[in-house]
Design a protein that fits this description.
Helix content is 70%, strand content 0%. With 262 residues, the chain is an all-alpha fold. Helix 2 packs across helix 4.
């Protein structure tokens, strides 16, 4: 699975996007057997995020849960559901996730980890990559070094000869395409968000066939991608363009259902 997702961070991203969508599916399913199946899949996906030992995944999962809690509001039923799923997930994580993975995923910037802690070397390499990235950005703030030229440019700037990505999509977008590219990149997020908002306002609610759960789940996925982009090289990821395309398709579908409102 990790090989198919390219790396553990992306596997965690895919899992979190699915978690957001399935949570809203759960709100529209009333059959006990189906609800049990959805909860089981949610638990497996949450476990998968921790098994990747991805710190970006942990932050993305917390963002996903926080956004859902804020978006849906607090009610006894939802709070009970969150507590139930969270408790079951915690039991699975503590029982099945290797200790080294838990140690790595808990070694976040600013938590006071020592140089001997698992994952500290990765954090140091990321910090070094940011420094190199800012040097590259300074060369041409307006237009950058050219799309796809990050590898060769870093190789020429880095005394170690590394070509590793900066692990920050916004930094890489600006390094390769300058301010113009960065603004266009941010514009994709803004446009997708607006399209999801319009679709949600027009679509009926309460049934799976109404597709309102798709809009809400994809919106959580978009927020998760925004956060992940701070820690991963995703600015040319197919996931972004899939979400942008999905937002356009859902808005057009909703407008066709409500031609007067549109």
């Amino acid at each position: 699975l990790i090989r198919q997702a390219w790396n553990p961070n992306r596997l965690a991203l895919f899992s979190i996007i699915a978690i957001g969508a399935l949570w809203y599916v759960l709100q529209n399913v009333y059959n006990a057997l189906l609800r049990g199946a959805v909860v089981a899949i949610l638990l497996v996906l949450i476990l998968g995020v921790f098994m990747t030992a991805s710190r970006s995944g942990l932050l993305g999962l917390l963002t996903c849960m926080g956004f859902i809690a804020v978006e849906q509001g607090v009610s006894p039923r939802r709070l009970l559901g969150l507590i139930l799923v969270g408790t079951l997930a915690l039991v699975l994580v503590m029982q099945l996730v290797p200790e080294k993975s838990l140690e790595r995923i808990g070694n976040l910037p600013g938590t006071g980890g020592t140089s001997s802690d698992i994952g500290t070397g990765s954090l140091q390499r990321r910090q070094y990559g940011f420094e190199i990235g800012f040097e590259i950005v300074k060369e041409n703030v307006l237009l950058g070094v050219g799309a796809g030229n990050w590898d060769i440019t870093r190789f020429l700037h880095d005394p170690t000869g590394s070509t590793a990505a900066p692990h920050n999509s916004y930094l890489q977008a600006m390094a390769e395409g300058g301010v113009v590219c960065l603004l266009a990149f941010l514009g994709l997020f803004r446009g997708a968000w607006n399209n999801f908002k319009v679709a949600e306002s027009l679509l009926p609610r309460g049934r799976l066939r109404d597709l309102d759960w798709v809009v809400k789940g994809a919106r959580v996925g978009l927020i998760t991608l925004v956060v992940f982009s701070l820690f991963a090289d995703l600015w040319q990821s197919i996931v972004l363009f899939w979400l942008v395309g999905l937002a356009i398709a859902l808005r057009r579908y909703a407008e066709d259902l409500n031609p007067v409102s549109a």
